[in-house]
Amino acid sequence: MSNMAGFSPTHFNWRVEGSVAVITLDRPERKNPLTFESYAELRDCFLALRFADDIGAVVFGPNGGNFCSGGDVHDIIAPLLDKDMKGLIEFTRMTGDLVKAMIGCGKPVIAAVDGVCAGAGAIIAMASDLRLATPQAKTAFLFTRVGLAGCDMGACAILPRIIGQGRAADLLYTGRSMSAEEGERWGFFNRVVEAGELETEAMALATRLAEGPTFAHMMTKTMLAQEWSMSLEQAIEAEAQAQAICMRTGDFRRAYEAFAAKARPTFEGS
């Protein structure tokens, strides 16, 4: 394992509080659009997080009242018009690699959504493990609005699993905005909190997770992803093996010893 000490990205904001990493995009004047460079750097960041034992959870938050407005119209959309098929597939695979890296990073990722959460921004929220929102959050999978298919970066696979096939079809065909209230009712958002409480709530949740049995969280995240393609019989057997592995960790013993002593366990991630 390694750690993220000294990590200093160029194309987004990064800070670490305790063992919680906080990511925000750094173009608030444009509602935080993504560029080719920020896509690639975010992908590389989440790939590195898989091997970082000093980070227990990640918060992906807003900046300036907005989460992310998607791919930058001038820096991404316009250049794509001049790319050949090889260049286009390289780009779309890179964007998909960000989602795969988020799912494979081994850390719980919490999206704290405020304001605009559109296009690839909606995908980043979707690919997170947990999602908090303010009442002002407006989430739109707006790919059809720009003449593209709704099947972007895993949306047709992941979004129906979160909110159901019919509701996902509604959002992916129309590209309309989903309100915070609608998102919470549909299960996209775990809860809605006031704007002034968003960062506090997200950090409290992330800290609680980071202080927990992080190896077990990694196993939980792994199985949540892997069991999509398993039969029920395969899933039950895979979970039996995963749980047996966790039973060999020090955190399992620490939890038992703390319970026996009527104390709160202190987990160490091993």
Detailed description of the structure:
By secondary structure, the chain is an alpha/beta fold. The chain has helices at 36-49, 73-80, 85-104, 120-127, 155-163, 165-174, 180-186, 198-210, 214-226, 232-246, 250-260; strands spanning 13-17, 20-24, 57-61, 109-113, 116-118, 130-133, 138-140, 177-179, 191-192. The protein has two domains: 13-210, 2-enoyl-CoA Hydratase, Chain A, domain 1 (Alpha-Beta Complex), CATH 3.90.226.10; 214-260. The protein has eleven helices and nine strands. It has a six-stranded mixed sheet with strand order 1-2-3-4-6-9, sandwiched between helices. A three-stranded mixed sheet has the order 5-7-8.
In short:
With 270 residues, the protein is α/β, with parallel strands linked by helices. The chain folds into two domains: 13-210, Alpha-Beta Complex (2-enoyl-CoA Hydratase, Chain A, domain 1), CATH 3.90.226; 214-260. It has eleven helices and nine strands.
List the helices and strands and how they pair.
Elements: E1 13-17, E2 20-24, H1 36-49, E3 57-61, H2 73-80, H3 85-104, E4 109-113, E5 116-118, H4 120-127, E6 130-133, E7 138-140, H5 155-163, H6 165-174, E8 177-179, H7 180-186, E9 191-192, H8 198-210, H9 214-226, H10 232-246, H11 250-260
Parallel strand pairs: 2-3, 3-4, 4-6, 5-7, 6-9
Antiparallel strand pairs: 1-2, 7-8
Helix pairs in contact: 1-3, 3-4, 5-6, 9-10
